[in-house]
Amino acid sequence: MTVSEALAILETATVECKKRDIDTPEVMEALDLLEPHIRPAWLIPQFRYHLDRDPSVGVDQEGQQQVLRATFLASETQLKN
């Protein structure tokens, strides 16, 4: 997987998190690939935290998407600089 592919996976996950569970092996692989290259170091753990949820507990999907979107954009910007 390339950095571009990993970013595309995270972007898709961010958009689709309101429709489906995005805690998938593909998303985890993308996060694993990007984690050593992203600063500040808390961005990827924050993205992971908002993926890891109990399906029996209601999640504010709009809030989840907003956090994931902000985290993704910060990660993407950092990689481009």
Strand and helix layout:
Blueprint: H1 3-16, H2 25-34, H3 43-51, H4 61-80
Model description:
This protein is an all-alpha fold. Helices cover 65% and strands 0% of the residues. The protein contains 4 helices and no strands. It has helices at 3-16, 25-34, 43-51, 61-80.
Strand % is: under 5%
Helical content class: 55-70%
- Which word captures the global form? globular
Structural class: mainly alpha
Largest sheet: none
H and E order: HHHH
Beginning-to-end CA distance, first to last residue: 21 Å
If you average the pLDDT, what whole number results? Answer: 79
Query: DSSP helix count?
Result: 4
Low-confidence stretches: none
- Whole-angstrom Rg: 12 Å
**Count of DSSP strands:** 0
Provide a concise account of the structure shown.
With 81 residues, the protein is an all-alpha fold. Helix content is 65%, strand content 0%. Helix 1 crosses helix 2, helix 1 runs antiparallel to helix 4 and helix 3 runs antiparallel to helix 4.
